[in-house]
Amino acid sequence: MKLIDGKQIGEEIKKEIAVKTSAIIDAGGEPPHLAAILVGEDPASQTYVASKERSCKAVGITSSIYRYPANISEELLLEAVDFLNNDEEVNGFIVQLPLPKHIDADKVLQRISPAKDVDGFHPVNMGRLALGLPSYLPATPAGIMLLLEKSGIETEGKHCVVLGRSNIVGTPMSLLMSRKSNPGNCTVTLCHSKTRNLAEITRQADILIAAIGQPEFVKADIVKDGAVVIDVGIHRIDDSSEKGYHITGDVDFDAVAPKCSYITPVPGGVGPMTIVSLLLNTFKAYNGEIYS
């Protein structure tokens, strides 16, 4: 069993990004600029945005955070999106999810200019992804593809099972793994909460991507010997330890790992690559690679 070290791979890619940023600054240019809109006090959202800000600083990308109270009106939030759409100094931005219940998240995401949608959630970018056209890829699926590539994992002709059908991870992941590319060229099965005979399907998986949102859902008895297991989940579980909690994923790591050829840990697997992918998308926006 080999651990796929997302933290190490992410650091290597960030060093490459830092070199590119330094070259821009040395030539007298302005570095790429990534902004984020953060609404409310959700702890997980604050942690992610803070990590994004640290990563930007580490590679020389300018980072701005626009913080708003949880009771902000939808109208005012849409005005904030319009402001960033029209700000020529900002190359790309994200609206951190989840949003408060009184705000229509789809409406907000659709208001973002596709050219600045570095999260890759806008319908235009999702459509381009589905058609195999150049687009900003959603950060977590893009990060997983980088993990597979950098780890030298063969995907062609393999059966990939994706657990979870969200628009953020599961659905785009299934599209990317089925593409005529490397990584890719898999036969893909997309499973979800209504899938019948789930264990029968997962036991056929050469590559199992768990993004189902349930702590330690994937047990050893539903994983094939020698499988590659990618754990997208991250959950904070209260316990009696000194910290008062521990972090786990969608996979029962201790039980499943001995059966795997490769597996991602939680934390330190997929998570670091999500932010790296966001930085790479920001560079694409800066260079006009998708939308000139």
What do you see in this structure?
- The chain has 292 residues and is α/β, with parallel strands linked by helices.
- It folds into two domains: 28-113, Rossmann fold; 139-271, NAD(P)-binding Rossmann-like Domain (Rossmann fold).
- Helices cover 39% and strands 16% of the residues.
- The longest helix is centred in the N-terminal third of the chain and has 21 residues, at 6-26.
- It is globular and about 55 Å long.
Number of strands: 11
Shape, per Cα inertia axes: globular
Largest sheet: 6 strands, parallel
Oligomerization: single chain
- What's the number of helices? 10
State the helicity in percent bands. Answer: 25-40%
Task: Describe the secondary-structure layout.
Blueprint (H helix, E strand, L loop, with lengths): L1 E2 L2 H21 L6 E7 L3 H17 L2 E7 L5 H13 L5 E4 L9 H7 L11 H9 L7 H12 L8 E5 L6 H9 L8 E5 L6 H5 L4 E4 L17 E4 L3 E4 L6 E4 L4 H4 L5 E2 L7 H17 L5
Parallel strand pairs: 1-11, 2-3, 2-4, 5-6, 5-7, 7-8, 8-11
Antiparallel strand pairs: 9-10
Helix pairs in contact: 1-10, 6-7, 6-10
